[in-house]
Structures are given as structure tokens and as C-alpha cells.
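Milestone 3.1: sequence recovery, worked example.
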């Protein structure tokens, strides 16, 4: 068993029956009373961040998690089929495990977070940025760029992204998968 002295960012612990990753922590030793550790914990399954205070020296249950590379193959109903890039086994994950399913395209590489002891998948994370081709958007008007005006554009995966007016059909853009926002135009 470990204690609060073993805390570090990214460490996964079992707290109240759920898995949490430590986002940040701070050891505090007030002038009066016992020391404590103030933390921000991210729920591994839901992504929700909560603050929590531990007394210094309290025993914690560290959990091992592994990141494994997978490749997206196809969608079947609400199941997404993937292939493990290490042993080429195929498996499927529910849509709720994927952080941005609307930006998945065939052949996309992702990282799947597994709980090592139970071999259960915890989350499926796309890269921070993906490059997608625009399949449909209204034509932009010249001279209409005095402000940061945006228009809707449909990308190859079917998702709708807000892009600047100068972006046209057939162009490739980089999209931030964490927020779903347009990042930049990709030069050919």
C-alpha cells in the first residue's frame, strides 16, 4: 500500500470504489493542526474533475493502467470495432468509451486505456488533433472577413465543424478532438 507521499501527476488511484487520475496535488502544512494533501482528481470513466483533500500519510490504493495502440476499423450500430496493433486481435467498444466518436475515420489510430488487473477498457482517446477533409460547406463571400465570422462545414466523418469563411469544399483542416473546434487549414 502506498501513502499520500507517493502522489504524482497522472497516478491512478482507487477512491470510493472508482478509478481517479491525479491532475494536480499540493502538500500543505499549516502552522496549527496536521498536514494534508489538497488534490484535483479526474474520474477515469466520466472525465469529471473533483477536488478532494487527503490527510497526510493516509494509505491509498494505486491502480495500474496501460495505454495500448488500436486502429479503428468500422462502426456497427453503437459499437465501434478496433484492431489491437500489437497482436492484431479485433474487438469492439461502446460509443460511451470514446472521447470524440464523431471524428473517427477508417484507419485512425487511437489509444485505449485498460485497467491492468481486470483487463477492462476504461476509455478510448483520439489524438489531440485530427486532419479531416471538408465534404460540404457554403461558399465564402469575399470581403466578408472583417470579423471572425464562422460557417458550418461537414467533414468526411459526417461531423459538423464551425470554420472561417475562407475555407472551401475539398480542403483539409485540422480539428481539435477535445473541443471539436477548427484549428487550422492543412497545406497540401
Amino acid at each position: 500500500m502506498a501513502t499520500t507521499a507517493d502522489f504524482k501527476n497522472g497516478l491512478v488511484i482507487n477512491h470510493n470504489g472508482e478509478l481517479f487520475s491525479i491532475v494536480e496535488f499540493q502538500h500543505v502544512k499549516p502552522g496549527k493542526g496536521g498536514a494534508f494533501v489538497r488534490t484535483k482528481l479526474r474520474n477515469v470513466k466520466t472525465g469529471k474533475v473533483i477536488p478532494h483533500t487527503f490527510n497526510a500519510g493516509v494509505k491509498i490504493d494505486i491502480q495500474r493502467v496501460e495505454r495500448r495502440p488500436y486502429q479503428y476499423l468500422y462502426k456497427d450500430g453503437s459499437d465501434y470495432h478496433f484492431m489491437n496493433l500489437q497482436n492484431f486481435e479485433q474487438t469492439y467498444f461502446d460509443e460511451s468509451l470514446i472521447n470524440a466518436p464523431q471524428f473517427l475515420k477508417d484507419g485512425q489510430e487511437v489509444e485505449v486505456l485498460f485497467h491492468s488487473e481486470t483487463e477492462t477498457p476504461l476509455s478510448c482517446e483520439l489524438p489531440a488533433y485530427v486532419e479531416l477533409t471538408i465534404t460540404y460547406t457554403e461558399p465564402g463571400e469575399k470581403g466578408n472577413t472583417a470579423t471572425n465570422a464562422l460557417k458550418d462545414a461537414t467533414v468526411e466523418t459526417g461531423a459538423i465543424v464551425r470554420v472561417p469563411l475562407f475555407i472551401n469544399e475539398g480542403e483539409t483542416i485540422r480539428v481539435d478532438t477535445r473541443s471539436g473546434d477548427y484549428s487550422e487549414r492543412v497545406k497540401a
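The first strand starts at residue 2 and ends at 3. Residues 21 and 102 are 25 Å apart (CA to CA).
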